[in-house]
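Hi all, long-time lurker, first post. I run a small reading group and we've been trying to get comfortable going from sequence to structure in the token notation. Rather than ask abstract questions, I figured I'd post a concrete chain and ask someone more experienced to write out its structure so we can walk through it together at our next meeting. Sequence below, copied exactly:
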Amino acid sequence: MDDEAEAPFIDPESDYPCCWFCPALRLPRTGFLVADRPSRDWPFDAADGFRYTVDTRTPVCVHPGRVGLPAELTARTYVDPPPDPERDEPDGRGRRWRRPGYRAAPARR
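-- Answer (accepted) --
Happy to help. Here is the structure in token form:
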């Protein structure tokens, strides 16, 4: 049969500086995308060590300089939401984190 699997993009025996879990070491060039950096847009999956795109679950390499390829994906910049004055305490200190379902003891009068 002529259906031999394509070789990995980077030979694992080479001394190329990519990460040990990089998809370039296990997949051909057509099997993964290259991103400019780690991001929530392509989360890490601890089950197999790859980062994946959320929509198509395509493996993603996040070190374009290490594999010698230009980045195809650009991570969005996430910004924390502005403070919500309705959620802040009257004294201006803001709320402290509490467990779900936690109720503070009623104030003594």
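A couple of things your group might point at:
The CA atoms of residues 5 and 62 lie 24 Å apart.
The chain is about 5% helix and 10% strand.
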